[in-house]
Structures are given as C-alpha cells and as structure tokens.
Write a structure and sequence with these properties.
binds cytidine-5'-diphosphate, 10 helices, alpha/beta, 5 strands
Length: about 190
C-alpha cells in the first residue's frame, strides 16, 4: 500500500507533533524533512557538498533543534542545488511501500504533489513563537523575531516557497489543543482512506 500524508506549514506550527502522532496511529513511516536542512546548515562548508554527502551521523547531531540551526537551515534551503540534492531521498521515502508521513515546507507542492492527503498546519506567529520558546527558552522577543524572519525567508524564496498546496486542508492550531489538532488530522486521513 502506497499512501502519503504531506504536512507543511510555518515554523513551530505543530507539524512535528501531529506527524509523529499520525504516523504512530496508522503505522506509517515518518520523515521530518526539516532535519535534513538543519543538518546541511549545521555541517558547515559548502552547503551543496554538505547536502550531497549527508549521512546518518549528520542527522544524529544533538544541536539540530536550536534556533541557530533553524536559521542556518532556512539560509541553505534557498539554494536550488541544495534542495535538488535532497529531492530523490524524500520522494522515495514518500512513495515507499507501507505509507509515509513527511513534514516540511514543500511536501505537498513539490516533493509529493500526488500525496493522498495534504495538510497545512499553521498558527499565529505569537502562538508559534511561544511554543518554540517553551522548547528552547532564552529571550521570548528574540524567539518571536527569529520565527518571523524565518517564515519570511521560507515564504519569499523563489525555489519551493512555503505555501499551502491548492488542495491542502488547513489546520489552524492557534486555538486548538494538541489532541484536537491530531484528531482533525486523523479525520482527514480516515476520510481519504475510506
Ligand atoms: O521545526 P520547525 O518548523 O521550526 O523547522 P523545520 O521543519 O525543522 O525546518 C527548518 C528550516 O528548513 C525551515 O525554516 C526551512 O527553511 C527549511 N525547510 C525547507 O525549506 N523545506 C522543508 N521541506 C523542510 C524544511
């Protein structure tokens, strides 16, 4: 059975939490594609070389969830050759036997336009920054500024900009609990599988 759930959206919208829950619920594999870009940014040196030589060790670094790694990721993510180097792996993962959930920025628009389910998970910048601040701590105003800066870069880039696919179902988590957001995602997937 080939079945892809594409989950896109801006920084700290809850994509990761929803993706993990949905993957566990349906027994699908899960790929956090942001981790690929974070690993490329964190590796340093020429980002295209880093993307072409990405290995499991690079993805296991402990510093990938930091604000700095998020900023570095969004800077290398504007480079078309970096994105191109990561496409095949993501496409194969998406269409592998057994079902897959991928979360990122361009899964429903570029990586897997044929995905059976496309979700666009979003929330206000303030709510998202607060969630990220709970994870990373530090200066709350700086976390908000970083979230806004990264969103602008991700939405404004020429190659694979962040935007909802025309056929995506939007889940706004500003006023939804985690459980309600997961339930909304599960309902969409169950409808598509029926
Ligand atoms: O967890 P969070 O939503 O903050 O970010 P992430 O999903 O780990 O992604 C980090 C950065 O990688 C994003 O800001 C994007 O610039 C880039 N990215 C991308 O361009 N395409 C993807 N499919 C996933 C991430």
């Amino acid at each position: 059975m080939i079945f892809t759930v594409a989950i896109d959206g801006p920084a700290a919208a809850g994509k990761g939490t929803i993706s993990r829950a949905v993957a566990a619920r349906f027994g699908f594999a899960h790929l956090d594609t942001g981790l690929l870009y974070r690993a490329v940014g964190a590796k340093g040196g020429d980002p295209v070389v880093a993307a072409l030589s990405l290995c499991a060790e690079d993805l296991a670094r402990e510093d990938l969830r930091s604000l700095a790694a998020g900023q570095a990721a969004s800077r290398v993510a504007v480079i078309p050759q970096v994105r191109a180097a990561l496409v095949d792996f993501q496409r194969r993962f998406a269409r592998a036997e057994g079902g897959a959930v991928l979360d990122g920025r361009d899964i429903g628009t570029v990586i897997c336009p044929e995905a059976e389910v496309k979700l666009y998970v979003t929330a206000s910048a303030e709510v998202r920054a607060h969630r990220r601040w709970l994870e990373v701590g530090g200066d709350a105003a700086q976390v908000l500024a970083e979230v806004i800066e990264r969103d602008a870069r991700d939405m404004g880039r020429v190659e694979a900009p962040l935007k909802p696919a025309a056929d995506a179902v939007v889940i706004d988590t500003s006023v939804l609990s985690i459980d309600a957001a997961i339930a909304a995602a599960v309902a969409v997937i169950e409808r598509a599988r029926a």
